[in-house]
Amino acid sequence: MLIRNCFFVIVGVLTMLITAIGCGTPSLLITPVTRTDRLEEMRVDTPDKPSSDKIVVIAVDGLIANTRGSSPLGSTENRLSAFAQQLKKAEQDDRVKAVVLRINSPGGTVTGSDTMYELVSRFRKKTGKIVVASCQEVTASGGYYVACASDAIVAQPTSVVGSIGVIYNSFHVDQLMGRVGVTNEVVKSGPMKDMGSPFHPLTAEERKIMQQMVDEYYARFVEVVRQSRKPTDEARFASAIDGRVMSGTAAMNAGLVDHLGLLEDAIQLARVKANAPRAVGVMYRRPFGFSGSVYASAPAQTEPGESQKFTFDFGNYAPNLPGGFYFLWRP
């Protein structure tokens, strides 16, 4: 099965190349690689007179969910699984003095976001190692939820921060089905068994139950933010948790972040907090592929001197997400 799938992929690639080139005969070099889950280190930030200490940069990119993404060549790695593996590697390495979370995410599922938050919280409690969150373009909703597990949050002045809240996503196709003569029949064990089904609008009782769940998840989110930020101005705090997004500068004024700065500044802050001034900044990657800097979105082969383009990857984020509860900013 694996050999057959690989054959179809190779044939597909050859077909695309021939189509793109036209009548010319393309040449293609295929280098086999071994599939592995092993992580390797690469240096991304080296201070003067570096020591053996390390600061690990771990990315939190795109939609946060405990699921695989997709690509033209098949499914991609489960981001939550990769995140957990990288934290475990940092935990087991005594030379790792701190972790920097490079966050560029609009959020994601309630459970996926909460799981990442818990993983970071347990990492800090078990190891005593410093964790600093660095906000990139977007650190909203579930992305900010994860950031709250850190010792400090650094945002760029132009970062989009906030969207503290919960949204229940659903859609209904019952009217469309009626227009084309399609009906849905369901046999269920209880009146609420198909609650939230796309085949009928929410009843008043169903909406009440869903609202109760949204309120429960929102209360948890607010408590996470409260424990992280320890607000002293309740009026300002109330306005910061009403679901709005704001710039990094406004977020700092509202008490949602601690410092303004770039990713490099977040790494330097981690060195200071961990008392490791000469620690080397590293990232983990699979044995094949290459990332050129701490801002590279994914391993990608480049020629020497070729610049890399940063891509904000929403993963399987789409206008119509599967029904469910989300810590998610949806502009």
Give an overview of the whole structure:
With 331 residues, the protein is of the alpha/beta class. The chain has a domain at 39-66 and 73-182 and 242-301 and 314-331: 2-enoyl-CoA Hydratase, Chain A, domain 1, CATH 3.90.226. 34% of the residues lie in helices and 21% in strands. It contains nine helices and 14 strands. Strands 1, 2, 5, 7, 8, 9, 11, 12 and 13 form a nine-stranded mixed beta sheet that branches. The longest helix is centred in the middle third of the chain and has 26 residues, at 204-229. Mean pLDDT is 81; it is low at 289-293 and 296-319.
CATH architecture annotation of the domain at 39-66 and 73-182 and 242-301 and 314-331: Alpha-Beta Complex
CATH superfamily label of the domain at 39-66 and 73-182 and 242-301 and 314-331 = 2-enoyl-CoA Hydratase, Chain A, domain 1
Rg value: 23 Å
The share of residues in helices is: 25-40%
Shape: globular
